[in-house]
Amino acid sequence: MDSVSVFMLLVALPVYDALASKSSCGERYLMLPAFLKSSRALMHLVAMASLLFAAMGANAELREIDWLELMPAEDLALLENMPEVEHQGDGPALLPDEIMTGRVVPEMENVTGRIPGFVVPLKTTEDMRILEFFLVPYYGACIHVPPPPPNQIIHVKYPEGFTIEALYDPIWVEGTVMIQRTENDIGTSSYAISADAVSPYEQY
Fold first, then answer.
1. Which InterPro entries does the UniProt record give (predicted)?
2. Are the beta carbons of 94 and 25 closer than 8 angstroms?
């Protein structure tokens, strides 16, 4: 199995559990398969996604932004130090309230580069060109499963718009990161990008 297939398997797993559980984005926990139902496993999921994206795009000229760069050290420490919980049945893994406050990494302000992720549409044209969206590190976030922490969501505006065949297709977003909080019924983001370019994810 190649790295792309492994990545798609990892990011798709939360979706199947969430569909069965009929979860909503208003809740503050993630519905994950049994072996991912812990905060540490969630962090590993995001880390694995970042590593695989990085490995497949290692030759790019633009700086590639890692999703975990957007999470401050205290949030990472909270996830790492949470005790493992025995999960039975389909119960969710609760995330610490502190993590859901959306703390940011000040050094990421005005960082220019590109970051891979998945699209959660917020504003589209009549012909379904996407003008505004949340970028998230794994497929299904905010749609089939509750949202990740706000510092793992980026609010992106791209006035010229783009189309995508399916929401499970990853994309590249190029631009400059801003620390800017956005809240709506779908989720809350701690960062924003006014995109210079949006393109399908491809291995470089």
1. DUF3299
2. no
Counting Cα atoms < 13 Å in the Cβ hemisphere of 168 gives: 12
Residue length, the chain?
204
- For the chain, domain boundaries: 3-200
Residues 6+ away with beta carbon under 8 Å from 140: 11, 12, 14, 15, 18, 118
Query: What are residue 118's DSSP bridge partners?
Result: 136
- In tens, the pLDDT along 121-173 reads 999 999 999 999 999 999 988 777 778 899 999 999 999 999 999 999 999 99
Q: What's the CA gap between 27 and 178, in Å, rounded?
A: 26
The mean pLDDT value for 5-22 works out to: 40
Token code pair at residue 25 = 């984005």
Average pLDDT of the residues in 54-73: 79
Torsion angle of alpha carbons 17, 21, 22, 27, nearest 10°? -90
Residues 6+ apart with CB under 8 A from 145: 14, 15, 17, 18, 23, 30, 31, 32
CATH of domain 3-200: 2.40.50.870
Token digits of residue 94 = 């609760």
